[in-house]
Amino acid sequence: MKKKQGIITFKVDEDLLSAIKDIPNRSEFIRAAIVGALGSVCPLCSGSGMLTPKQKHHWDDFAIDHFVEKCHDCHESVLVCSNTP
């Protein structure tokens, strides 16, 4: 049985439209980009970029023994446990 499909539309600025207008299958490209981005969503804020007051409380408890530092190899931010030898 085929999955039910839905249609989503959204506005883009002229620069983005120009960048994607010649992609042969824009729909497939956009679907793949969204699925890929969903796999990278922050597990704490679910991609909103903001913590709720309760999430902030939990983060504050977590941050007692953890901190953010830059990876020496890739220079990305990583969480580090201060209790790790």
Q: What Rg is obtained from the alpha carbons, in whole angstroms?
A: 19 Å
N-C termini distance: 53 Å
Q: How many strands appear in the DSSP assignment?
A: 2
The shape, in one word, is elongated
Quickly give the structural class: alpha+beta
Count of DSSP-assigned helices: 3
β-strand amount: 5-15%
The percentage helix is 25-40%
Residue stretches low in confidence (pLDDT < 50, at least 5 long) are none
SSE run: HHHEE
Side by side, the strands of the main sheet go 1-2
Could you tell me the mean pLDDT? 90
Short description:
This protein is 36% helix and 12% strand.
Structure commentary:
The longest helix has 13 residues, at 26-38. This protein is elongated. Helix content is 36%, strand content 12%. The chain has one domain (14-81). Strand 1 and strand 2 form a beta hairpin. The protein has helices at 14-20, 26-38, 53-63; strands spanning 66-70, 77-81. With 85 residues, the chain is of the alpha+beta class. The protein has a two-stranded antiparallel ribbon. The N and C termini lie far apart (53 Å). The model has no long low-confidence stretch (mean pLDDT 90). The protein has 3 helices and 2 strands.
